[in-house]
Amino acid sequence: MCGIAGFVGRGDQLDLMRMTRALVHRGPDSEGFHIDRDRAVHLGHRRLAIRDISGGVQPMWNAAGTICVVYNGEIYNHETLRAELVAAGHVFSSSHSDTEILVCGYAEWGTGVAERLNGMFAFAVLDEERQRLFLARDRFGEKPLYYASRPGVFAFASELNALTCHRDILARPSTLALQKLFAYGYLPAPHALYEGSAKLPAGHFMTVDLNTLASTIEAYWRFVLEPDEDLAAKGDEALAEELRHLLLQAVGRRLVSDVSVGVFLSGGLDSSAVLAAAARVRNGGPLNSFTVGFSEPSYDESEFAKIAASHVGSRHNQRILDLEEARDLIPQVLSKLDEPLGDPSIVPTYLLSAFTRAQATVALSGDGGDELFAGYDPFRALRLASVYSRLVPNKLHCLLRDLAAFMPKSARNMSLDFRLRRTLMGLSHPESAWAPTWMSPLDPANARDLFDKPMRAEDVYSEAMELWEMGPAKTRVDRLLQFFTIFYLQDDILTKVDRASMMSSLETRAIFLDNDLVDFCQRLPHRFKYKNGKRKVLLKKALGPLLPEAIIHRKKKGFGIPLAEWMRQVPKTLPLSPVSGMRLQWIRQAWQDHLCKREDHRLLLWTWLSLQNVLHPVA
Q1: Which residues pair with 607 in a beta bridge?
Q2: How is 338-381 classified by DSSP, letter by letter?
Q3: What is the pLDDT of residues 419-455, one digit of tens each?
Q4: Is 47 helix (H, G, I), strand (E, B) or coil?
Q5: How far apart are CA 306 and CA 308, in angstroms?
């Protein structure tokens, strides 16, 4: 895993050095640069050596010196592509560098190279002959890529903090981005925190003319559910066997490494599946599994992790997180985020990554399983929500919301009062806004109090509502699957894991996002994912030969933290630095209401704390 940065146009070597220096944590092993002052092209790279450690130096050029690449990621089908390219006449100088696949692949296929890759990546290709820069990001956006265009300069980087190290790129928060942040709890692509900056959306590539700096963006892949009844006709047993094969294949591809590999193990179904599959296909000694638990029992999954580790026979490593340790971790972790995130599990994810990095350089994860196989609570809420919205008049709904507000506030994980209040909050809006509102840090009705110029819910949730109303999905379950996969997975979960792991220079690999496995899931009708209130139906059946029943059929808990209680004890001093366009007095009152247990503002206050630490990082 690595960090990349560069620009075309105005700027100099000092700008490039500042940009790459901000990415040292992503690539602590080495650095490399290409500077062409005549053409005003600057490319920089920070390397975390995973494959071809002695080679693989970047920027990497083709033999003719006409194509150059800086790259962050892993290409899991690089051996297959190498053989295809060798057959086409390309000569490789490295023995097994996946970076060289991009150099030769671009020479052979041009902009079509991205769609052939099975992996996670963000890269920039300098094409000297066509006088252009070509940038691409993987299908789900596992690896980040930000860019900014100003008169006279186009710049890109793996992180916003690096991008704004260029003298012409200002770190001035966008009001629209702030409203999106508090609406979703994350920033959906292409939105980025700062004015004039953007994220290249997942599954897209971008070309930039070196002479005019004119740019174009195109999608090379989109996640689209296309239920195939011919596939369903194979029957449950055959489908479970096929899914199990695809899972084992995906794990096998991601076990290839020149450095040590471990497995994140929460004790939930997805991470346990990854561990069991890795144990099945791995050649050699036992795997190392890594778990973070909590001193608060309702949030702790460590006992289930032990069961899974014992069943598989992994060398199990565990740490328990308590409030005192978290108090020190929270400002440290949040100040290292280059973009605020309303997901508090960034803290245990960081601790897990740091804990794992002491023994491994690569970690396999189960990210994507919940999104592809309907693992979240809102899937169960859909049917009741549709009946409720049809039968309950607005006045009665408002009364029920008022009554729910008086329920005692529990700090337990996913307590009844918390779930009920959030469900009713979502049902105050159109069906197409249910999903983002259920997950939102801020009730959209309160946006008028928090922001000087609030947006309507229809505007702030425009991306999610358009997908729900205009997307190809025909059923509510498929629409919710698309929401979680296209928005929540890409811009929350994968962003969280990337940032948390990179803080410790650890590479993570998401097993469920393998191209072949995802293609199968896109064709799989939703009744094999969610049926009669049961989630992950086919996945559980496929894992029968690999895991004990206690793991397969256990109740989902989620990788959360005791946030409601923590937000009454952390931080020691309320973070109330001014933010343009936002009303401090309302935030101050929200803190007081939460501290006195009059309200449960856990997600709102966490998002605000995250924003404050990003804008004003601790030393």
Answers
A1: none
A2: SS----TTHHHHHHHHHHHHTT-SEEEE-TTHHHHTT-STHHHH
A3: 888 888 888 899 999 999 999 999 888 888 999 998 8
A4: strand
A5: 5
